[in-house]
Amino acid sequence: MPPATTPSRPEIRISRPVRVAEAIKGWVVEEGLRDGDRLPQEQELMQRFGMAKGTIREAMRILEAQGLIRTRTGPGGGSFVNAVGKERTRALLGNYFYFKDLTIADIYQLRLALEPELAASLAGRLDGATLAELEAVTLEYAEPSRTLDEEREQHVASLRFHALLAERSDNPLLGFLIDFMVNMLGDLTVYRKLYAPPNAELRARGRDYQLQLVRALRDGDGEAARSIMTEHMRTAQALMESQEAEMLRRFIPAHGAGGDRPPVR
Q1: What is the pLDDT of residues 24-50, one digit of tens each?
Q2: CA–CA separation, 265 vs 259, rounded Å?
Q3: Mind giving me the DSSP string for 143-193?
Q4: pTM: predicted TM-score of the whole model, two decimal places
Q5: What is the CATH number of domain 16-81?
Q6: Which fold is adopted by the domain 87-255?
Q7: Mean pLDDT, the chain, whole residue set
């Protein structure tokens, strides 16, 4: 009996412009080019990478679409290295999840894993101005909202508290991931109207946890900060999931039992 053979994987074909775009990125790193540095002219790129004008132009368009280069016309114009900003990166990554039908549980699974560790790492390391800024944010939702618009703004403000903590992380990857999740949750809250009807318990308990957290951060108590953030995330998840369930009850009768959820944008 002949030995079983493992099916070969289909070969992934990468177009020539994509390969050249990757080669240009590698060359930029090797040369140590930084944000704002000028790239060689088209003719030099053709010679350096041994490619025709059309391929080089398409590769440059790919890099520009990725935000890694920018072009300027006129005197002093040309192509320049561009450091991709946080806002653009967040938007591009958010597009990937546009049709993924994320749930509260999806987001909080990661928030529970990451935010308590961030809180513990920041204990005793934040200056007085940052701690005052965190406390000032909580004043924006110290009182119950009077309108749905105000309720929505309070939800967004309460998430800004967490974005501020993410900005202070010494780990840029951890800070970005938390900031990204906070913004995704904000988008989900707004587009799915998870702030309606108002949830007084969510506002009050969330603010109480945040004020406790500020005290632990000021005292330099990392274990307390980790514990408080963990309970904050668990409580927020439970209350937000109840808001999500209420949204689905409102949405399904209007669109039929087979209707899809509104997408996260």
Answers
A1: 999 999 999 999 999 999 999 999 999
A2: 18
A3: S--SSHHHHHHHHHHHHHHHHHHHHT-S-HHHHHHHHHHHHHHHHHHHHTT
A4: 0.76
A5: 1.10.10.10
A6: Four Helix Bundle (Hemerythrin (Met), subunit A) (1.20.120)
A7: 89
